[in-house]
């Protein structure tokens, strides 16, 4: 397979270790003082343990192989101490430890996670100069780095060149591009990309479909989202709570409360239990339309399923009553909250303060706040 040098990659590579060294030193000092999650690695309890092992390894003669070093680098990456890994790789290079594709991929990933995808491409260039063949992981990591920086066009170009040179992208590569397109609001392109995945033999899963449906909903393209939802169902892909949440939220935002309630019922019929987030969306939407009896029905249904209102639910109710000028009713809701052990938050109090001030009820507000 021929080596790929993408068009977005420049032939004169910055000397990434030298120009980044000062920044890395500061980051590394912070990283080294933070303990990692003990569950992240079976071998090391925290980053200090890993660094102690690393120090022992670099003091050995002859030096261990790169395979042994990557056994230390990988857990530190999982602990998210990216700057520390970059610093370690620098020491390894100074000592003459040759990289392999796996260690290069680790280093590229660390630069991308630190927001320096340009340095990641410098490492990529060094790989090619040294004759180390990049793999799908190399390109996927760079694509992900570009997507994180919202450079979607460059990410898509690298993806296309990767395919054109003979590399076969995996599901992670496809998902990375799809997520990037959706995060930047490229809904139409995301729908086309979903079709392209299928044409190339990758069947999008529920996560992929939900990602695009959410993007369409946020762009106000509810009909297109529902079409994609129907297409997904025809293909036998079962929607999950995320899929339903996106559609119900979009329906409520467009004033389609009845359709949203029907979708909720469909969700329950499919043995998917709605969560408090979905119920709060419905309660808020119905209250905005003045559908108080429907709100009470939703709250009753929610409670029958063992889901109790939370501070967000109560704040929605308080806000709705205040906007209707029913401030005494809003105060009763706050009292009920407190009796149930749910402490009103700053949002709840702000709603009450604004309502009392608008109605010229400042003296009563003082009494309320001291209760």
Q: What do you see in this structure?
A:
The protein has 371 residues and is mainly α. It has 3 domains: 1-149, Serine Threonine Protein Phosphatase 5, Tetratricopeptide repeat (Alpha Horseshoe), CATH 1.25.40; 239-308, no CATH class; 309-371, no CATH class. Helices cover 70% and strands 0% of the residues. It is built from 20 helices and no strands. The protein has helices at residues 16-32, 47-58, 66-78, 82-94, 101-113, 117-130, 136-148, 152-164, 171-183, 187-199, 206-218, 222-234, 241-253, 257-269, 276-288, 292-304, 311-323, 327-339, 346-358, 362-370. The radius of gyration is 27 Å and the shape is elongated. Mean pLDDT is 84; it is low at 1-41. Pfam families: PPR (PF01535), PPR_1 (PF12854), PPR_2 (PF13041). PPR repeats lie at residues 100-134, 135-169, 170-204, 205-239, 240-274, 275-309, 310-344.
């Amino acid at each position: 397979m021929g080596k790929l040098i993408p068009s977005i990659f420049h032939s004169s590579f910055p000397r990434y270790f030298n120009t980044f060294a000062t920044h890395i030193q500061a980051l590394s000092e912070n990283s080294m003082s933070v303990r990692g999650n003990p569950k992240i690695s079976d071998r090391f309890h925290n980053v200090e343990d890993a660094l102690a092992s690393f120090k022992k390894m670099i003091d050995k003669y002859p030096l261990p192989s790169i395979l042994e070093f990557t056994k230390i680098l990988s857990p530190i990456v999982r602990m998210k101490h990216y700057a520390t890994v970059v610093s370690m790789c620098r020491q390894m290079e100074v000592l003459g430890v040759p990289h392999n594709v796996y260690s290069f991929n680790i280093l590229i990933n660390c630069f991308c996670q630190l927001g320096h995808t340009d340095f990641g491409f410098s490492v990529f260039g060094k790989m090619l100069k040294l004759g180390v063949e990049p793999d799908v992981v190399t390109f996927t990591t760079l694509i992900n780095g570009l997507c994180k920086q919202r450079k979607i066009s460059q990410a898509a170009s690298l993806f296309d060149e990767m395919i054109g040179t003979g590399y076969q992208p995996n599901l992670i590569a496809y998902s990375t591009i799809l997520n990037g397109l959706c995060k930047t609001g490229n809904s139409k392109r995301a729908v086309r990309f979903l079709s392209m995945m299928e044409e190339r033999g990758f069947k999008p899963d529920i996560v992929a479909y939900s990602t695009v449906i959410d993007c369409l909903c946020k762009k106000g393209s509810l009909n297109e989202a529902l079409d994609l939802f129907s297409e997904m169902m025809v293909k036998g892909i079962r929607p999950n709570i995320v899929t339903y949440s996106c559609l119900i939220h979009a329906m409520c935002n467009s004033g389609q409360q009845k359709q949203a309630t029907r979708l909720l019922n469909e969700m329950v019929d499919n043995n998917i239990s709605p969560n408090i987030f979905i119920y709060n969306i419905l309660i808020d939407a119905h209250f905005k339309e003045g559908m108080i009896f429907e709100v009470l029905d939703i709250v009753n249904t929610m409670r029958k399923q063992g889901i109790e209102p939370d501070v967000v639910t109560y704040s929605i109710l308080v806000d709705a009553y205040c906007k209707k000028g029913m401030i005494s009713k809003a105060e009763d809701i706050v009292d009920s909250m407190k009796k149930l052990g749910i402490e009103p938050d700053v949002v709840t109090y702000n709603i009450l303060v604004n309502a009392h001030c608008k109605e010229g009820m400042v003296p009563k507000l003082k009494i309320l706040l001291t209760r």
